[in-house]
Amino acid sequence: xxxxxxxxxxxxxxxxxxxxxxxxxxxxxxxxxxxxxxxxxxxxxxxxxxxxxxxxxxxxxxxxxxxxxxxxxxxxxxxxxxxxxxxxxxxxxxxxxxxxxxxxxxxxxxxxxxxxxxxxxxxxxxxxxxxxxxxxxxxxxxxxxxxxxxxxxxxxxxxxxxxxxxxxxxxxxxxxxxxxxxxxxxxxxxxxxxxxxxxxxxxxxxxxxxxxxxxxxxxxxxxxxxxxxxxxxxxxxxxxxxxxxxxxxxxxxxxxxxxxxxxxxxxxxxx
Length: 271
Prior knowledge:
This protein is an alpha/beta fold. It has helices at 38-49, 62-74, 89-103, 127-149, 165-168, 174-194, 217-220, 222-227, 242-249, and strands at residues 2-3, 12-13, 29-33, 53-58, 79-83, 108-111, 157-161, 200-206, 260-263.
């Protein structure tokens, strides 16, 4: 499944025939925030191929959400598409309630929704924009997780999306990087808190990936977008992230909690 977002980005690949499902998530009930596009869509399709029932939360792009629904159903999986705002505690709770009403509970929660905006200097960042980053990227994880935990049992898995920027920094993405650092701490602390319940909490830290979130650089500094790369000399593809989330969701990773998978094309983070 491919998509063309912009001439400055390579064609986006969400999943390929080379990925063979093996029922690693058969009948699992999955909720993915920000699941309509980018990494979230790739995760949705990979988990659907592994036999999961997949619910996605999207913010405003109904067309993209519908494409993801069609992709999930093409994998023979049941799909649930929900519109909401991770910046709203009420919306997060409503989303969880809808999944529970449909399927009776949640086995895997993927907190993936996020936003970023570049700034040249601290003085350019308004209080409202700083707060918006934390509302969407961090507070949404807290509110969605808190609501979901009421309906998760032993064997459940929570997977958060942080970023390589939490470990190496990014001069143009100070608010975004700060939220991703907060996610790292939250993941590690929550993992310890939930050990006794048998619920694992891990995270994926993507490097530069060809998704629409990168297009914020187009109006800020187009050269940054053109030069965005990794030690491998290219951007990653969402399809290269999907299997990492599957691994953390299934019992293949049963001895992992509080950990980070760095899928970043060779960027050394020492974290």
